[in-house]
Design brief:
The protein is an alpha+beta fold. The two termini are about 15 Å apart. It contains five helices and four strands, in the order H-E-E-H-E-H-E-H-H. About 50% of the residues lie in helices and about 15% in strands. Helix 3 links the parallel strand 3 and strand 4. The longest helix has 19 residues.
Length: about 120
């Protein structure tokens, strides 16, 4: 919808607030994904790494006027808080996570695509 992969990646860089993956063992004994923001102790433990990782990515020469954050809840809240302290970006723009849209809002997919394209095009 943005004009293809090449057009998109010529305009945008995709990174991660926390580029590490975590798991925990569920009550049923299965290993399941665990987000850095799901426990304050983990969040605090990885924060120096997160700050370092973001600052290294900013050295790539990324446009810092706006950052789009996938996930409108805890991920955006955390990034916004860090950004308030560090002043990396002029604006943090939350976007619904594509997995959320595909899993729970599939019937409204076209409206989400339109929203994403509109917000991305403003950049």
């Amino acid at each position: 919808a943005y004009g293809g992969v090449e057009s998109f990646y010529n305009s945008f860089y995709i990174g991660s607030v926390c580029p590490l993956g975590f798991t925990v063992q569920s009550k049923a004994g299965k290993e399941v994904n665990y987000n850095y923001y799901d426990a304050l102790k983990l969040q605090n433990a990885v924060e120096p790494f997160i700050i370092n990782a973001i600052e290294k990515q900013l050295e790539f020469g990324i446009n810092k006027s706006k950052v789009f954050c996938l996930g409108t809840g805890k991920n955006t809240k955390y990034l916004t808080g860090l950004n308030t302290k560090k002043k990396w970006f002029e604006e943090v723009v939350p976007l619904e996570h594509p997995r959320y849209v595909m899993q729970y809002k599939r019937k409204a997919l076209d409206s989400y695509i339109d929203k994403f394209i509109r917000l991305l095009a403003e950049e």
